[in-house]
Amino acid sequence: MLGRRRTQSERDAATVEMVFAAVTGALLAAAGFIAVISPVLAGAVHGAGRKGCFAGAVVLAAALFCGRVAITLRRFERLGRLRGADPHGPAAAPPGQTPSDPSITADPVHASGSAASSRRGDGPSPDQPSQPGRTSPDS
Fold first, then answer.
1. Rounded Cα gap, residues 117 and 112, in angstroms
2. Less Cβ crowding at N or C end of the chain, within 10 Å?
3. Of 16, 56, 10, nearest in space to 32 by CA
């Protein structure tokens, strides 16, 4: 993404992904902390073991938080680079042209003749439910 200005929607997506990473990381860290510290809270650990459990819980919580944030943001960056390399996807062709490989289409639903006929009003396509408001069984 060097040399290219990001659009507002790209900046918004990055912000949402960062907040998602932080929130899920915090929840995972809290769950790990509680899991390790629960014997202390139950009164099963006394003396020096309490300090050890507390220290272990803090270390585990920090590791879980950092790991979750790193994995989430790395995945987002990788997907962003894949989208940024070819914004229309690998199967898209310029208007008026077909893709070089006929088995690859940008929109598989509209690639079949029956879907095209449903746009003309000839009837529902087999991919769509027959009654409005109903979902197809495989959705």
1. 9
2. C
3. 56
Looking at residue 38, its amino acid is S
Dihedral of CA atoms 113, 118, 124, 126 in degrees, nearest 10, equals: 20
How far is C-alpha 45 from the geometric centre of its chain's CA atoms? 40
Cβ neighbors of 3 (< 8 A, separation 6 or more) are none
Q: What is the pLDDT of residues 73-124, one digit of tens each?
A: 999 988 887 776 654 545 444 455 454 544 444 444 444 444 444 445 555 5
Q: Which amino acid makes up residue 55? A: A
Neighbours of 97 (CB within 10 A): 8
C-alpha distances out from residue 37 to 19, 46, 54, 55, Å: 27, 12, 6, 9
Is the dihedral angle over the CA atoms 20, 25, 26, 27 positive or is it negative?
A: positive
CA 7 to chain CA mean position, Å: 20
- Cα–Cα separations (whole angstroms), residue 46 to 11, 37, 51, 56, 118: 50, 12, 9, 15, 72
C-alpha–C-alpha distance, residues 77 and 60, integer Å: 25
Q: Supply the DSSP symbol for 7.
A: P
